[in-house]
Here is the input.
Amino acid sequence: MAGHPRSRTIVGRHRRDPARADPLDVLPTTVGDETQDAPAGTLVFVPPLVHRTAVAEEDGTILFVVGASIGEAFDGGGWDTFAVANALRQAGRMDECRALMEKEIEKRPEHWGFPYNAACLEALDGNADEALAYLQRALTIEQTAIREYLEKDDDLDNIRDDPRFQELLK
Here is the structure.
């Protein structure tokens, strides 16, 4: 998110599925276009279909999310896996990062978010070939949602000038 160090963005800008119950987020949060100061212990209600971003203002900030459909266990939809994988990447443990993302892709092959986020991780790590291969994989699952992200996602800035990336935008 612009204006915030990438390493402190805990949950990137996203919109929640309206079929799921409303989650509660705990930490400094941007909901829609409004940034809220949420000191320790604050609960932030985030309604469905509203974009939200969680940014750690202090080291050691912990994100706690509560939400699920009635009668179902919470499923983070993949952002939680991405957060762990990104921490592994930042720690220089890219092999573990890749293994985690591949495991999730195998478990949920119909979910475009896992190959898309694997592409983001590869792009952030400077691996254009791998990033573009994952983007292709994601686009075979979903076209419309991914195209919205492709144009704006700064995780992909390292590959944006690659002609193969430009081809994906068409």
User: Anything to note?
Assistant: The longest helix spans residues 94-107. The helical segments are 79-90, 94-107, 113-124, 128-141, 144-152, 163-168. Residues 29 and 36 are 6 Å apart (CA to CA).
